[in-house]
C-alpha cells in the first residue's frame, strides 16, 4: 500500500481485535493483540518478500536471509551451520536443504572448518555477496515496510525498530528460548 495520507478505517486486524473483545471481554487486549499482530505482520512481510525474492533472484525469503546472515558476518563471510540455524531460527535440516540450493546456484560453498576436524563452514561466494548486497538495497528501497510503502512516519518507523529490537533482546536473553529451534 503506497502512502496516500489516508487512514484505513477497518481491517482484518481491527476485526480480530473487535471480535476477541466481544468474545472474551474478561481478557486485556494488550496481553494478546501484540503477539497476534506481530505474527500477522511477519506472515505478510514474509509472503510479499518471498514473491519478490523469487521474482528477482529465484530464491525464497529464508534463502535471502541466509545470504544476509553470511554477508553481515564480515571477514571471509563464513559461518558454521550451527551459527546459521541459531541466527535464522530454523532447524539444522532446513539449513542443509537451503545450503544445497544456494550452493547449486553458486551463491555459497562448503569448506572444511579448520577449527573443527569433521566440520565445515558455509562461505558466501562473490556471486552470493553480490546478490546479498542487491537484495539489501532492494529491501531498503522498496520493501513492504519501506518509507514509501507505509503510512508510518520516519519517527514512527524508528520507534517501531527500537521496540522490536528491545523485544528481541528480551526473548533472546530468555534461557527457555536457547536452542528452541535446533
Considering the chains and any ligands shown, give keywords for the structure:
single chain, 182 residues, mainly alpha, Arc Repressor Mutant, subunit A, three-stranded antiparallel beta sheet, 61% helix, globular
Could you explain the architecture of this structure?
With 182 residues, the protein is mainly alpha-helical. It has a domain at 28-142: Winged helix-like DNA-binding domain superfamily/Winged helix DNA-binding domain (Arc Repressor Mutant, subunit A, Orthogonal Bundle). Helix content is 61%, strand content 7%. It has seven helices and three strands, in the order H-H-H-E-H-H-E-E-H-H. It has helices spanning 12-23, 29-57, 61-72, 81-88, 92-104, 126-142, 154-173, and strands spanning 78-79, 108-112, 120-124. A three-stranded antiparallel sheet has the order 1-3-2. The longest helix is centred in the N-terminal third of the chain and has 29 residues, at 29-57. It starts with 11 loop residues before the first helix and ends in a 9-residue tail after the last helix. 15% of the residues are buried. It comes from Reyranella soli.
